[in-house]
Amino acid sequence: MSTDRASAKRRANAFSHVAKAGWGKGVGTLWRIARLNLRHPWQVTFCIASTFIAATLQLFVPRLLGLAVDQEHHIVGATDAGVAAEQALWNTAILLLVLSILRGLFTLTQNYFSESVGHNTAYELRLATYEKLQQLSFSFHDRMHSGDLITLGILDIDGVRMFFATGFVRLILLSVLIGVGAYLLISTDLLLGLLSLSFVPFVGWRSSVVQLKLRATWLELQDRLTVMSRVMDENLGGIRVVRAFAAQEHELAKFDQASLDALELAHERVNLRVTSTSLMNLSFFLSMGLVLWLGGYKVMNGEITVGTLATFLTFMTILQMPVRQLGLLVNSFARASTCGIRLFALLDLELAVKDKPAAPEIKITEGTLKFDHVSFRYPGTTRDVLKDISFTARRGETIALVGPPGSGKSSLVHLIPRYYDVSSGTISIDGQNVAEVTLDSLRQEVAVVQQDSFLFTTTIENNIAYGNPWANERRIERAAESAQLHNYVVGLPGGYDTIVGERGVSLSGGQRQR
Question: What is the signed CA dihedral for 487, 493, 498, 499, rounded to 10 degrees?
């Protein structure tokens, strides 16, 4: 299992040449993410404006609560002015209710638009990532595990998506609440204000440290979950092999070990979070106890009112959550930077196989294929798979490539539609170098039947028409007749509308190839 995890890490670090410079590129990556968010300017504007208004309204709440306490105190001690004081208390209560409703509405607006910006950005990144994966050459996919690419396209994009809501917007909110709140407390009473804020440095430091540790353990947990997903994927994909060799117990043991590794780290994360939360609560209640003690003394001496003390305590309660979120803020920046570096490393990869500028479309006339002194080696290797291959295949001819396994027969065929580019020499069709025409037109004209036949989970008709989705029904039937598949299909209850199973498992090997 340790070997599986090590290999998973090696594959996950396939962009290590970029990741090594990750810290240096962190600020640039965050700025790049911010520019993606700014593609939705009106949503960003509504979100930021709502954040400022909601934070400002929240800062009025302690003042109004303090005022209400003082008004209640006057009512209790009043003789002839009780009615007026009671009316003032009702006015304050109504104002507080309206203020709370408005704050809730602006907070709702802030959350809606911050999530909207994040999801729109994620949508654009998913499309860009998927398009890039379609363009990258076989040599890239040869060295990357599909599970790692799926993780990149889901978890890393999610890390970038959350940056706007949990990073940028939270930074504005915390700056207003902590900055303005601290100023209001200290300007009211210096000593009481400092005591009220005494928990802030410890909670902010502890929260940041713990969030970074949780971030590190999350990355490790992600690797372990990748291993577990790979074990499950391979087991389900090869379920017939597993059953044929009665290897269920072996596969269960593999999955059990992978699950236990993930569970062990999950428990470690829970312990870290619980311990940290307990320490932060302790520091907060110690500060509140000191404020109550000193504030009560000042109230008895007439230096401040009961309402002022209530204002300080309410401010502390309001500030407690934003201060704890400093760690989440640090974690959001760290996660977005890490995920963004990996994601943009993929999006910025140069295509090994691509169209030349102003490349024309290929035009087939005689259908003559020519290999002229072709040599080929796989990227990153030093051994030639093919060396100085020359032959000509004309229309109507059948060319047989004979050789032992690993001699390069499949590799030679893959060079024709440019799944790979030749190391030297040229391949031409009707005198047109395949490297100098557009890939789309070339692959429309070259048909390849892979050794490992793959079918999509859809109808037989859709699988046959995959290369030309607009083909009419008769053309699809003629193709099936040419492949000697038509009679089998019409004998099925659903005919061409029959759904084939995942990877075409409901068909035989020969039927899948046809």
Answer: -130
